[in-house]
């Protein structure tokens, strides 16, 4: 048995700790909540959206070592359209990206499965051996997915080193299984990421395997696409995992609330009958991933207004074998006589959007059932119904994406010869929604659902890897399994997350001119001629410099005059509306425990002839001099004589602390019932101003927002009208 494994390699291993779980003071897992902040006094039902965000660093020293088993189909159908060659290229990329702390085993299957190598540490010495195994793959006739899957589970099950390590299976197939039943294999303890290649396979089998596994996804790859990018997305996520075995504990507050249900979609949950708490088991998280649940609660009737707690949330997880628990998050709700009995009237946009997404997935389930039963006409009608259902939702990036995916599904189901691709795409999309994890479904309008910075970075590297491979060059091996921060795709996704666009500039090369001819002496005849020439040249240079300075001054004055005349045509950003949803402040130590705010900006272009470009929006919201929130936006264009809204709904800040002066000012503000926030920043725009065409300039943003609080949390209108970006 020991000969099966290369256990002598120095792979990371975590020994079980002796002590109890620790409080994670680094906040590797963070919460956000979205709910109505007021409820009536009589008995009513409310919903709370909880978002669990992986905030770990995923640095090389923090991420877990990966034990990966690649289960590869070598059946006869892999000869079609160079599928075998594409699979080999994808495996070359995987081997290149893994490092010495990772281990890889390769299993091939056709009529029977064969383990081609044990779990080998992917060291520089072992990489050529692994490459040779991949290059030597040949096709055989039958397809026995079950045997391949069981062989992979056997490899992982016989590991002696497993503590604090990440185990996963990649399963690729392009055909229907004709031996065994792979869906009967128990994969509940390991993530299985399945990849269906082409349109000849049965998507139901691969989808069911992924759904029954611990966090796996089904990825659909059409024949016109390469296999490297789908592999790379999942691999990038796996090589960023820090948080393992994540569990979310949602608890009611005795006397204040009753927890009726927690909608966690595909993720398993258990209930504590004594406390009424629900535990949702999420498993391992890619760095930067978000998991969302909707808690359905019932609030009992109360006799008078009071501050209540709707639910509390807490997480448990492990990092490199050490168990941790997060800080507890109470979700407050105020019981008042003026609270709305209809939660939908005060429902935050984030909760409304998540409800629409889940309802969309329900439509996809119904469409899948109809398509599997051969009722394509009914499936098409259900897609149209889903599209009409979204017409009532307010436009935002998620809603727009859902509409685009429905349009793509409608295009596939109405196109002859695309029905097989429609079924596979539908299942892949559905599993991605249920897992809230990126999967290969093809991008829609350039957007990939649930993408993280790490999955995007690896996908960008895979594109370049494929390009080099098609040119006949084997790309060089990467010496580190971490992604390269200089990748264009990494920059684009990171900038999109931060709401900005990066302008990449090459550093100029400094060249110093030298004259190698030696001078004789400064008083020689030749030198006198040079000295005289130098004086003459110097005088001319001074005259030219003076003229240039005068021209520059004239241009500046003219520019100021023109900007003063045409300033009303400059594009600008203004505050359209603002709402202070929640503010929990601990006066003892000056900590803002919870701040929840919604704000809407309006980008305005008054020029009736030309577009205006906003290339950077970067604004900071301060409370008593302390940064609370940053509002950023990616580049956008406003058409002539029109405006465009920028909506920031239910943004949250926690744990900020004021200094002593800020605490005194805060106490005065709360006593007065008006809390001031300062909004500062710069907005870079480009537009036509006077005779200058397509001019770029900065405008500054500086205003004070004062909110009625405690009260209805609305902004005082007089301040809102004065809040706009201005030049200079």
TrEMBL record:
<protein>
    <recommendedName>
        <fullName>VWFA domain-containing protein</fullName>
    </recommendedName>
</protein>
<dbReference type="InterPro" id="IPR036465">
    <property type="entry name" value="vWFA_dom_sf"/>
</dbReference>
<keyword id="KW-0812">Transmembrane</keyword>
<feature type="transmembrane region" description="Helical">
    <location>
        <begin position="541"/>
        <end position="566"/>
    </location>
</feature>
<feature type="compositionally biased region" description="Basic and acidic residues">
    <location>
        <begin position="489"/>
        <end position="504"/>
    </location>
</feature>
<feature type="region of interest" description="Disordered">
    <location>
        <begin position="467"/>
        <end position="504"/>
    </location>
</feature>
<keyword id="KW-0472">Membrane</keyword>
<feature type="domain" description="VWFA">
    <location>
        <begin position="67"/>
        <end position="234"/>
    </location>
</feature>
<dbReference type="Pfam" id="PF13519">
    <property type="entry name" value="VWA_2"/>
</dbReference>
<keyword id="KW-1133">Transmembrane helix</keyword>
<dbReference type="InterPro" id="IPR002035">
    <property type="entry name" value="VWF_A"/>
</dbReference>
<feature type="region of interest" description="Disordered">
    <location>
        <begin position="1"/>
        <end position="25"/>
    </location>
</feature>
<dbReference type="InterPro" id="IPR051266">
    <property type="entry name" value="CLCR"/>
</dbReference>
């Amino acid at each position: 048995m020991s000969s099966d494994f290369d256990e002598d390699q120095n792979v990371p291993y975590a020994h079980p700790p002796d002590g109890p779980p620790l409080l994670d003071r680094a906040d590797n897992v963070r919460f956000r909540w979205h709910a109505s902040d007021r409820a009536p006094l009589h008995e009513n039902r409310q919903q709370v959206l909880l978002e669990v965000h992986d905030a770990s660093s995923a640095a090389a020293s923090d991420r877990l070592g990966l034990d990966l088993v690649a289960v590869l189909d070598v059946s006869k159908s892999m000869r079609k359209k160079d599928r075998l060659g594409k699979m080999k290229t994808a495996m070359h990329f995987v081997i290149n990206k893994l490092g010495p702390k990772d281990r890889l085993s390769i299993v091939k299957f056709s009529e029977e499965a064969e383990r081609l190598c044990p779990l080998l540490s992917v060291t520089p010495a072992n990489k050529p051996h692994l490459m040779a195994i991949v290059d030597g793959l040949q096709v055989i006739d039958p397809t026995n997915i079950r045997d391949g899957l069981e062989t992979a589970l056997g490899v992982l099950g016989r590991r002696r080193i497993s503590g604090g390590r990440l185990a996963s299976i990649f399963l690729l197939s392009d055909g229907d299984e004709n031996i065994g039943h792979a869906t009967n294999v128990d994969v509940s303890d390991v993530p299985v990421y399945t990849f269906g290649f082409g349109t000849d396979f049965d998507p139901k089998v691969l989808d069911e395997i992924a759904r029954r596994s611990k966090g796996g996804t089904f990825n659909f790859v059409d024949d016109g696409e390469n296999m490297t990018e789908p592999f790379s997305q999942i691999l990038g996520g796996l090589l960023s995992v820090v948080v393992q075995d994540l569990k979310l504990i949602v608890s009611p507050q005795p006397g204040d609330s009753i927890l009726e249900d927690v909608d966690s979609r595909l993720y398993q949950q258990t209930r504590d009958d004594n406390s009424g708490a629900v535990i949702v088991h999420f498993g391992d998280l890619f760095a930067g991933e978000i998991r969302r649940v909707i808690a359905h609660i019932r609030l009992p009737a109360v006799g008078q207004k009071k501050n209540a707690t709707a639910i509390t949330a807490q997480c448990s997880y492990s990092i490199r074998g050490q168990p941790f628990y997060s800080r507890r998050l109470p979700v407050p709700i105020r019981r008042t006589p003026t609270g709305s009995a209809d939660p939908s009237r005060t429902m935050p946009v984030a909760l409304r959007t998540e409800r629409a997404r889940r309802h969309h997935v329900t439509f996809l389930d119904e469409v899948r059932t109809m398509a599997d039963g051969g009722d394509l006409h009914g499936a098409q009608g259900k897609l149209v119904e889903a599209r009409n259902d979204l017409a009532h939702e307010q436009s935002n990036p998620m809603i727009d994406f859902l509409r685009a995916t429905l349009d793509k599904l409608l295009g596939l189901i109405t196109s002859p010869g695309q029905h097989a691709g429609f079924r596979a795409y539908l299942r892949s999309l559905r599993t991605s929604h249920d897992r809230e994890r990126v999967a290969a479904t093809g991008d829609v309008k350039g957007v990939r659902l649930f993408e993280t910075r790490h999955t995007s970075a690896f996908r960008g590297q895979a594109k370049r890897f494929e390009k080099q491979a098609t040119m006949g060059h084997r790309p060089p091996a990467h010496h580190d399994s971490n992604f390269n921060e200089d990748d264009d795709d990494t920059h684009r996704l990171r900038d999109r997350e931060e709401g900005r666009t990066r302008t990449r500039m090459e550093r100029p090369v400094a060249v110093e001119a030298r004259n190698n001819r030696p001078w004789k002496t400064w008083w020689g005849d030749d030198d006198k001629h040079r000295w005289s020439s130098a004086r003459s040249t110097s005088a001319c240079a001074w005259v030219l410099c003076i003229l240039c300075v005068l021209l520059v001054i004239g241009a500046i004055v003219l520019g100021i005059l023109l900007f003063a005349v045409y300033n009303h045509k400059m594009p600008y950003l203004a505050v359209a509306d603002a709402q202070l949803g929640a503010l929990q402040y601990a006066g003892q130590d000056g900590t803002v425990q919870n701040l929840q705010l919604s704000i809407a900006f309006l980008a305005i272009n008054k020029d009736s002839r030309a577009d205006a470009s906003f290339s950077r929006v970067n604004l900071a919201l301060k409370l008593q001099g302390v940064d609370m929130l940053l509002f950023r936006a990616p580049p956008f264009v406003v058409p002539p004589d029109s405006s465009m809204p920028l909506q920031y709904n239910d943004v949250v800040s926690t744990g900020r602390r004021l200094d002593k002066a800020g605490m005194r000012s805060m106490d005065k503000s709360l006593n007065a019932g008006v809390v001031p926030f300062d909004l500062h920043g710069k907005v870079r725009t480009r537009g036509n101003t006077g005779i200058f065409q397509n001019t770029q300039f900065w405008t500054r943003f500086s205003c004070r927002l004062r909110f009625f609080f405690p009260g209805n949390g609305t902004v005082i209108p007089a301040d809102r009208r004065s809040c706009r970006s201005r030049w200079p």
